[in-house]
């Protein structure tokens, strides 16, 4: 996608993960770099209260400004100007069979959370070598790696050149946390969440499950929509509050083998209700497991990584084939909460998490 400001072709995750403001009726056509530059430009002669979206002139509040600035500060995809210029070349990633591809330069491994790993192309001539470097750099076991380029999965026995991967190519890494086979018969997938009130004030750390069929949102299970007649095989506990100990909890259950055949993805999300960030809650804890084997944790995520965010898309349970499901690590930060899911839905759609 080309940024409307700098006119450079960028990856989707180099654009803001949500609309610039909750009042905007559009996604940003400015990349994150340019949008933040516009915010900083407006700040110089103006006060924080007068900052506006450069595309629709909607007022941008301080929380929205800080979210964009923090997202930019923490972005792992920042590229040098030279690489930005390379990405403008429309033939740069077009591979013609029979071409001899140079093995110099760099490639980028992009995670679903937007982070990017830069690798020397000469050191990873094969898919297996690439997986080994990912293991060394990120600590992700080879068996848990799924690599995609141009929507094609890379086979470990092939060379990168077989797929037309060259300097400045971007390979997507999907981290498979757990595979659930039909033989394992996970009758009931359980998402357990509990939290302590922030500073002793009652507040809610919401656990939500968004149910998708491909790119289509089918249903949302949360504290207020805890069961649906069309989905008797899923349930949300609603708010369970322990006033004596100033703690709350949510539980979501899903019987995978009884879900309708068109259900392809279950996204598990945490979001702060009144607090502006997740990090203000005391000792939040979560577990995703099979009800019959609660000792096996199916999703590992360090909540501290989302401390400065209002919401985080933690993981996705996705149907693959023959009754099998996989738990995929996401860790995508977002604005939005149970009062307004639109920014979270935008983050799912704009980040191409639907796979």
TrEMBL record:
InterPro entries hit by this protein: Stress/Tellurium_Resist, TerD, Ubiquitin-like_dom, Ubiquitin-like_domsf
All copies of domain Ubiquitin-like, residue ranges: 105-175
Protein name, per record: 10720_t:CDS:1
The species this protein was found in: Ambispora gerdemannii
